[in-house]
Amino acid sequence: MIFRDMFDDYDELSHLKETADILAESDDWPDLYDEEQLARNEVPVYSSTYIDDMYVHFDLSRETASKIKNCKHFITNVMYHNALGAKTEDLMKHLFALRDDVID
Predict the structure, then answer these.
(1) pLDDT at 104
(2) What is the pTM of this model?
(3) How many other C-beta atoms lie within 10 A of the C-beta of residue 21?
(4) Per residue in 45-80, pLDDT tens?
(5) Cα 94 vs. chain centroid, distance in angstroms?
(6) Full 3-state SS string of the chain
């Protein structure tokens, strides 16, 4: 995550400050998701949501997942954003348990 003042504080980022300001001020971004399509989804989806994720806000993750039809989510505070790489076996165990309906 990068904050605005970092473009002043870090020489490595200073040359990107003008571009970052333009992006930050823009409010005409297209929709990130097609919510109507997500609501019509027919494919089973199994997702993980990390309560203390430093990159994705927890409420935004839950809100997005709730818009996907046929989505079951594993919510955890013992794994983080890098769980797929750092705790692959543990994460996959939980996701397969969702698929097999052995988690409440």
Answers:
(1) 57
(2) 0.71
(3) 12
(4) 999 999 999 888 999 999 999 999 999 999 999 999
(5) 18
(6) CCCCCHHHHCHHHHCCHHHHHHHHHCCCCCCCCCHHHHHCCCCCEEEEEECCCCCCCHHHHHHHHHCCCCEEEEEECCCCCCHHHHCHHHHHHHHHHHHCCCCC
